[in-house]
Amino acid sequence: MSTKDFWKGAGERCGKTFLQVGVATLGISATATYTGAQAMALPWETALVTATLSALLSLVTSILNPSFTAGTGGAIDPLPTVPDVEPEDGYAVPEFDADSGEEPRHAEAGV
Fold first, then answer.
1. Tens digit of pLDDT for each residue in 34-77?
2. Is the pTM of this model over 0.90?
3. Residue-wise over 39-78: b if at least 16 C-beta within 10 A, else e?
4. H or E stretch including 20?
5. How far separated are the first and last CA of the chain, in Å rounded?
6. What are residue 92's DSSP bridge partners?
7. What is the spatial distance between Cα 32 and Cα 67, in angstroms, rounded to a whole number?
């Protein structure tokens, strides 16, 4: 928790959380155009308080999981890859169209 990487990760997480929650609380749309009066009517105080509280909670989350925040922890292990497997019983799964109304049939490999 005393490393530069930890504080860099925690700061990035806090900043992103603050901005995301602030914009979501204001309800700003990417396509909207606001006049001065409309911009002043937005809930700025609510957005600031909510975004600040969210950023603080983000910092607490970082402190509670410092190895993940610093980018060194393996909180989530990557999924293993599965190689292509040929069927051992000589049967292949045929193409099946669920919308056709037909029952699926089993076909022997190579047929």
1. 888 988 888 899 999 999 999 999 999 999 988 777 665 555 56
2. no
3. eeeeeeeebeebbeebbeebbeebeeebebbbeeeeeeee
4. helix 4-26
5. 62
6. 107
7. 40
